[in-house]
Amino acid sequence: MTRIARWFVLCLLSASALAASPDGIVAVSQPAAAAAGARILAQGGNAIDAAAAVQFALNVVEPQSSGIGGGGFMLVHLAKTGETFFVDSRERAPAHASADMFAPDGLPMTFPLASTSGLAVGVPGTLLGVDTALRRWGTMKLADTLAPAIELAEYGFRVNRFLAEDIANDDGRTQIQPETAATFRPGGVPLAEGDWLVQPALAKTLKLIASKGPNAFYRGPIARAIVKAQQRGRNELGDAGKGRMTLADLAQYRVAIRQPLIGHYRDWILAGMPPPSSGGLTLFEILKLLERFPLGDVAQGYGFGSPKTLHVMTEAMRLAFADRAVWIGDDDAAPAAQRALLNPDYLTARSALIQPNRRMDTPQAGDLTPWHAVQPKSARTREESLHTTHFAIVDRWGNMVSYTTTIEYTWGSGITVPGYGFLLNNELTDFNFLPGADPAEGNPGANDVAPFKRPRSSMAPLLLLKDGKPVAAYGSPGGATIINSVLNVTLNLIDHGMTMQQAIDAPRLSVTNAIGKMNCEGGQAFMQPPFSLATQDALRTLGHTGLGEAGTDGCRETIGSVQAVVVDPATGTHGGAADPRREGTVIRVGH
After folding, report:
1. What value, to the nearest 5°, has the Cα angle with vertex 259 and ends 258 and 263?
2. SS3 category, 94
3. 117-130 burial string, b = 16+ CB within 10 Å, else e?
4. pLDDT-based confidence at 569, cuts 50/70/90?
């Protein structure tokens, strides 16, 4: 048994689905990665140190979802000063990127081809983001936080059900490139649950980074290997499918430290991620659109899972996602309409479109003209992958981290850097494939490709505060459904009076575009209370789609995977809650 495995077993003896303690708590989607974070806390590290260890371990045990070939957003709350920051390590487009690169002949590339070509690879930010957080707020060296991941890569771990399923159902992504196939389909046979996975090339890479720091990645042999790897295209695309990243793009990558976007819902304060993620802004808009409705009042026909509640939630999602499609992009490239979208007068007008007993026609993005913007026309966007990962940590001092990280689609581009063992993202496919900018029509092209620009994200790591004190940090994976997973949990906590674990377990509803096709959860025993057939039929009667035939159970999806830590402001005790939708694990570390 390896050292990390022994540590994991010991940690499980003090772990529970909802632990309460004044000590450190980690809540992670994968047990071995949770153990890596707990090990750092036990060694005296703080939440930022532990977050680094978890992220590196996830590169090993959840390679299909995140890693040093990708990027993410880390929320950091400092207990001593009360400050909250976001470390933006989102991938950037290379210097030679262009708005039409996914449609060089005026016709958009197909997503399966574009997303598995080097053209889709953005300049990775995860490693520099983690290193930046450690240098600013951590207490341990980068090498120390890499140690658990190095051990997992070098000595191996058992493949769990989720990794095995993602290999088996990979849409071909682990089969296109020989290095990826050799790791996850040795001898042409996909790894199965219980198989032992050792990754010596990845261990070598992590050791090199531990020895020489981020420069080993952003300059030198690894950088040259990344550039060469992303020059792989697809035969069907010819030279148009080859990546445009250069050594200069890697050397010039910069992390952004951002102030949180602040939202208000009822008498709670929320600190969320600003653009280039759409997560915080879209979440806050939905909440404000819903605030006039008594969602928790059963006597007025609302309450959890009622037709009225689910109907107005759906309508608010449709309105906010219509705005998101046009107005939200990379603020560093073009200022987004944040103040307009959260302007009380604008929100009042948008909320008035929601009728409790009638489904609206397909809404368009709102007219922001009174707030110094112009009337848009529709943007061309595509759906995002459901595979990302999220974890949350609170240490014994009360510092908190809520971190969402990704390589975009499951398996990213499918390109493993030869000799170095990590996958490259396909994050640039989060840009518009067809340029949306049109001055005559008032479309700003907020999410069009441009040099050095970050593509729009849906990631929404969140800090929830009451009376100015942090009470919870949480988030979710799931592409565009991230926003709605975090929304569902927030409403469950505030309007429906659930505990954090109840709020996470409860079934979720999600709509990610203005058209409004519903996705909802059910079918698993922990998803309580379920959305009844009567409720589903009532929604069908209102005209909502996506639920199938009348009298049948149309709520059979699985949406998101929320991990959370909580703080009791009255007692100071810490707790955590993990999502059973994946192999969520909470570990308490006492001192």
Report:
1. 130
2. coil
3. bbbbbbbbbbbbbb
4. confident
Residue 186 phi/psi, 5° resolution?
-60, 130
Provide mean pLDDT across the span 380-398. 76
541: annotated active-site residue: no
Check whether 49 has a pLDDT greater than 80: yes
* Pair 117, 242: CB distance under 8 Å: yes
Going by C-alpha positions, the residue among 293, 346, 364 that lies closest to residue 513 is 364
Structure confidence by residue, pLDDT tens digits, 494-541: 999 999 999 999 999 999 999 999 999 998 999 999 999 999 999 999
H-helix or E-strand containing 567? Answer: strand 563-567
* Predicted TM-score (pTM) of this structure: 0.93
In the predicted structure, residue 62 carries a pLDDT above the cut 70: yes
pLDDT digits (tens, 9 = 90+) for 192-250: 999 999 999 999 999 999 999 999 999 999 999 999 999 999 999 999 999 999 999 99
Mean pLDDT (the chain) is 92
Q: Count of CB atoms within 10 A of residue 182's CB?
A: 14
Helix (H, G, I), strand (E, B) or coil at 390: strand
Local structure of 157: helix, strand or coil: strand
Nearest of 17, 12, 64 to residue 35 by alpha carbon: 12
Q: Which of 377, 387, 411, 16 is CA-nearest to residue 179?
A: 411
Tokens of 418: 């030869």
CA dist 554 and 560 (Å) reads: 18
| Phi, psi dihedrals of residue 571, rounded to the nearest 5° | -110, -20
* Residue of 126, 309, 314, 388 marked active site: 388
**Helix%, strand%, coil% for the chain, nearest 5:** 35, 15, 50
179: DSSP letter? H
361 Cβ contact partners less than 8 Å away, ≥ 6 residues apart: none
Q: How far apart are CA 69 and CA 46, in angstroms?
A: 25
Q: Tokens for 217?
A: 């990645």
- State the residue for tokens 């990027």: 71
Taking the C-alpha atoms of residue 395 and residue 310, their distance in angstroms, rounded to an integer, is 36
Q: How far apart are CA 113 and CA 461, in angstroms?
A: 30
Q: Could you give the CA distance from residue 414 to residue 423 in angstroms, rounded to a whole number?
A: 7
Q: How many CB atoms lie within 10 A of CB 298?
A: 12
